[in-house]
């Protein structure tokens, strides 16, 4: 009979996902497709903001959207009506997307010819922050009614985000929301994050957001090396 | 169900460990779990016991969770303190310039198998 062996592993569980995410990011870089991981609470206005963004950019950029939800496909239908190539990802009860799920989604979406893909992560401020999806940029949306103290309660989400969009600015007069306090709370966690107030409803801040996207796509493509997306490593 | 996702990642890593070390069955897995990793040990073990039954190599594997206390160091006064009690602000000098030293681990320490 075989003897019991003890093997030292000493590996963080997240390392497995991080390696898959790095490989996916590299392939997307070669393809020239910028993947943006869009994270927020449920009801922050992700789908409304995406629809308004598509109305402004769909004529100049080829845009794909992957809507992740525990169930239903209402969001994918909505954004497809605004000119995106869209699919719905069902996480089957999981609270976040990881790199393997993202890669599977991209294969179903088909990234050929796409400049920009939004990954609308599951509405949740906790675990989407912990798992690298392979995206080239992480953007989070905080809506005004959620309050300016959220960076104190969900620090990791604000630490990992490159850009914080403050959505629903049109309702700010009706809430005790202090943009200055929010900036202070975000800066404490993440001094380099950009903060951008906007409203998809009134159009406030939308030009700045679209300019940020154009320049992010251009920067991403600037390091492009031509090669087929899946690089022949996959079936 | 954050813990279930963690368990799926663990299983992927452990199946690779089993393959590269030619183990046909893993009987025990020791996990170092940081106090502020955001993972609840009880939920993790429940998810583990459910998920491993759907695998071959880990079918009868026991999960042993070792908690690692969270410690933060202050970059201004250089002292350390327990993270959970004092959070981001140093209790010694009041500085906000503090960094988590340990306590965020979700680390597979070792496996036993044959």
Give a structural overview.
- The complex is a heterodimer of chains A (235) and B (114).
- Chain A has 235 residues and is α/β, with parallel strands linked by helices.
- Chain A has one domain: 3-Layer(aba) Sandwich (Rossmann fold).
- Chain A has 8 helices and 8 strands; from the N terminus they run βαβαβαβαββααβαβα.
- A 7-stranded parallel β-sheet of chain A has the order 4-3-5-2-6-7-8, sandwiched between helices.
- Chain B is an alpha+beta fold and 114 residues long.
- Chain B has one domain: hypothetical protein PF0899 fold (2-Layer Sandwich), CATH 3.30.2320.
- Chain B has 3 helices and 6 strands.
- Chain B has helices at residues 2-20, 41-51, 83-86, and strands at 26-34, 62-68, 71-74, 80-82, 98-102, 106-113.
- In chain B, the strands form 2 sheets. Chain B has a 3-stranded mixed β-sheet with strand order 2-1-6, with helices on one face. A 3-stranded antiparallel β-sheet of chain B has the order 4-3-5.
- In chain B, a hairpin with a 5-residue loop joins strand 3 (71-74) and strand 4 (80-82).
- Chain B is elongated.
- The relative contact order of chain B is 0.26.
- The A-B interface holds A 1-17, 93-96, 98, 126-127, 130-131, 155-156, 188 and B 1-2, 4-6, 9-10, 12-13, 16-17, 21, 23, 27, 31, 38, 88, 96, 105-114.
- Strand 1 of chain A pairs antiparallel with strand 6 of chain B, so a sheet runs across the interface.
Descriptive key words:
heterodimer; A: 235 residues; alpha/beta; disordered C terminus; B: 114 residues; alpha+beta; three-stranded mixed β-sheet; 3 helices; 30% helix; 32% strand
